[in-house]
What does this fold into?
Amino acid sequence: MKSVTHSMPEGHVRRSGAGRRLLSAYRTEIAIALAIIVIELAVGMIVPAALSGGNISNVTQAAAPLVIMAFGVLLVIITGGIDLSVGSVFSLTGMVTGLAMAHGYGGIASSMAGLSVGILIGALNGALVTFVGLAPFVVTLSTYAIAGSLSFIVTDGHSLPISNPDYWLLNSGTLIPGLPNYALWCVLLLVAIEFSLRKVVAGRWLYAIGSSSSSARVIGIPVNRVRLAAYLLSGLFASFASIVSVSYISNAEATAGSSLMLQAIAAVVIGGASLFGGTGSAIGALLGALMITIIQNGANLIGVNSFWQGTVTGVVILIAVLVDRVTKARR
Amino acid sequence: MEKRASTSGSRFSDRPVAQVIAASVLAFAAAFASQASVAGDKQTVAYIAPSLDISYWQWVAYGVKQRAQELGMNYVEFTSENSPAKQMDNVRTALTRGVTAIVMGPVSSTSTPPVLRLLKEKSVPVAFTGIGPQAGQTDYTSAVTANNYDTGKAEGAYVCKLAKDRGSNKVAMLSLPQDRENAQKYMKGAQESFKSDGCDLVQVLETHGLTVNEAVQQANDVLTAHPDVKGIYGMYDEAATGAAKALQTRGSVGKVAVVTADGSPTTIKLLRDGQIQGIFLQEAVGQGIDATTQVFNALNHKPTTQELALKEPLVTKDTIDQPEAQATVKRVYPPSAGQY
It folds into this structure.
């Protein structure tokens, strides 16, 4: 085996080594991708339409907001933190965006107003966690409650139809022919985050802080600033996920994000991140979000009783995490 | 004596915190006394909602408040956050505050017996809205509910007809959680109509979060699994909004009929735009108005009606602007919710 490797041309060896490193680095993600394919094929055997282009398009469109939100949650989880406020930020962003449109502001200005919700709450979370030293769970639980409550207060609880006739383009338009915008946002964020996490120094700092914040501080990493940035981006992505969703359904609701927070955390964990910090990838978060959406889609297509759908989702998540833990332990 | 008084006075003036506390206590006592005297002078109705994160219960609240003002009653509001324990706490708190009548959207029918026992002891009239008391309970003034069974039947017949008009007898349903009594009644009525009218209910999907986003996904899934479905029965407002959005994305508006219960500014706009074909209006505001009238009558020894099951009339694109339909819509949601 050794002699074969030596006898290969240098470029081939380099490529083979890089491929092996890639396989090793993304072992969890590859396993999840395979699991998704197996699940989809299994559903397709029962309901062939599950494999149709139309259904795959539906699933990706439905998954897009969760994917975007999961990217933000991932950054916080890598640092060893948690952001429970994202669901409420999602709801409040939708209401603020809808309210701005109802007051005659255009799509861009309304979106900016919506995004500012995430930036503000993300910055507040980050500041309280880093500079005041409060526990992330407590801080983000508080902002979850506050933002959730404000979602009702801003419109007295009424849902808001989106009046701007062109706003749907943000989700379903096509800036690049053949690639709907909801997919484009996911791909752009995926590439940017994955590249940053792997190749940019600031991205590597996130892992260092998640592995040991005290060691990170000793070697000169600006721990507080990096953590603050992670929470800020988490809020911003939750807001962006919300406006992508609102532009799709043309409606803003105060309860829109209520189930998304747990799903986003689950997506990140399914994708191989540890809640103790130090691990995780954007590809994993994307695949985790896709898996959750595909399970829900499959359960609906097959006609699984609604009461059982939560059990099915929970069991699959548990299996995914257990398999990941076992394979990591073997390594 | 003079010295002592002077010392005491100077000590008090030297302690601003003590002054603030004393002033606060006085202000609180004054406010409490004025509140108590208002409550003493006027009858007070408490509205206890199961939760206020759903528009429906907010609209009932509006009806209770509006009617209470018309009748010269004070109004207070509590939310039980879907907890029977919190509901019981709210009832006790309301009694402590001296309310003279209660309008309640109970967390569930089964949560009502202990509430009714307590209110009977205190001789406080209670009217239920939306969800009635547990079967067998009689110690209440009125239960103002929607006639879910008859509506389920009528909506089922209408959806079946529209599906057949579009060339198929296959229909699907986006349902409220079937652990709710009103959902079960809608379902029973609908199933009877589908059976008698020859329609095949191919899939029922229940909501978890009552959101439009969820309904869009569910409608897409139903139409993917059963492309021959030509009618969607929505049991709640967001279901119709979601189904209409799914059909719009698929370019199938009008090819699959969408009908729903409830009604809101959003679905009424969709009705006018031809994206949904019918709404069976549930009078949320009307339930609040009628329930308040019932407890007021009980307090003032006037006749009351114990079972008041309000009809849910059908409105279509052709009838929505007729005066009768507009009068009903005004009993569905308040002006602040949106246009009629």
Remarks:
- Chain A has one domain: 29-330.
- Chain A touches chain B through 37 residues (CB under 8 Å).
- Chain A has a mean pLDDT of 89.
- The domain at 29-330 of chain A is CATH 1.10.3470 (ABC transporter involved in vitamin B12 uptake, BtuC).
